[in-house]
């Protein structure tokens, strides 16, 4: 209950004070360039990685990326750059 | 993203990970501050990736009690190229020697050409040149500059009006203009006709 409250307050603050929501609410920031690569900041770890699928843990839920010939160009504690042919990006609610 | 040139200079190691819990291992490595790149999953389930050579110690420490088997396949980058170069030091010595020899040989005088001088002057010039230190087999570096040679030669040899000294590659070219006093035309004056043979009657 308390967690939900803080979440709501954060959401409200982000919208009312025009703060960037990815900073305030600890959300992932995803940048996709065409189908070539996808850059995810603020993820919480790798769950599954194959050459056709990448599953990332987020603060809430998961992010599923499907495509072909995936290569992780760089991986840092909370950043990830994936290259290959990106076909789908799914948010899975946790 | 890490600079590619920097990783080339510091060196990188290709690592192969097989078995279960590869993702967990990757997460742990990322959490411990390691940077991995070109993470690729192969069909047989093994994962290949590169890590920086200076991070290798940290990598060992972080991957010590993982459930998957880890193999270091090969190293890439300058430190490994350097190691190989030392191993095959003959090549390195050969390259250095090649440039050294090419440099030395191209700085030696291999020919002296003199144009426009008669044999006598040419002989004299060659003698003077030897005294100046220019002969086949001497170094350009230690001999005088062409214009200095020009000055010295014109000073020393009298019957030369002008001399052009040119260093072309490894050969000295001397263009000589001699003081050629025009030959006096033969004097023709009236003379006697004298027969060589005695006259005879037929």
Fold and architecture overview:
The complex is a heterodimer of chains A (94) and B (202). Chain A contains two helices and six strands, in the order ααββββββ. Chain A is of the alpha+beta class and 94 residues long. Chain A has a single domain, classed as Immunoglobulin-like (Sandwich). Chain B contains seven helices and seven strands, in the order H-E-H-E-E-H-E-H-H-E-H-H-E-E. In chain B, the strands form two sheets. Chain B has a four-stranded antiparallel β-sheet with strand order 2-3-1-4. Chain B has a three-stranded mixed β-sheet with strand order 5-7-6. The longest helix of chain B is centred in the middle third of the chain and has 17 residues. Chain B is rod-shaped and about 135 Å long. The interface between A and B is medium-sized, with 16 and 20 residues. Strand 5 of chain A pairs antiparallel with strand 2 of chain B.
- At the third CATH level, what is the topology name of the largest domain in chain B? Alpha-Beta Plaits
The oligomerization state is heterodimer
Strand content of chain A: over 45%
Gross morphology of chain A is elongated
List the helices and strands and how they pair.
The complex is a heterodimer of chains A (94) and B (202).
Chain A: H1 2-16, H2 21-24, E1 29-33, E2 37-41, E3 46-49, E4 53-57, E5 62-76, E6 79-92
Antiparallel strand pairs in A: 1-2, 2-6, 3-4, 4-5, 5-6
Chain B: H1 4-10, E1 12-18, H2 22-31, E2 36-41, E3 47-52, H3 56-62, E4 69-76, H4 78-87, H5 89-105, E5 111-115, H6 119-132, H7 146-156, E6 160-168, E7 171-178
Parallel strand pairs in B: 5-7
Antiparallel strand pairs in B: 1-3, 1-4, 2-3, 6-7
Helix pairs in contact in B: 4-5
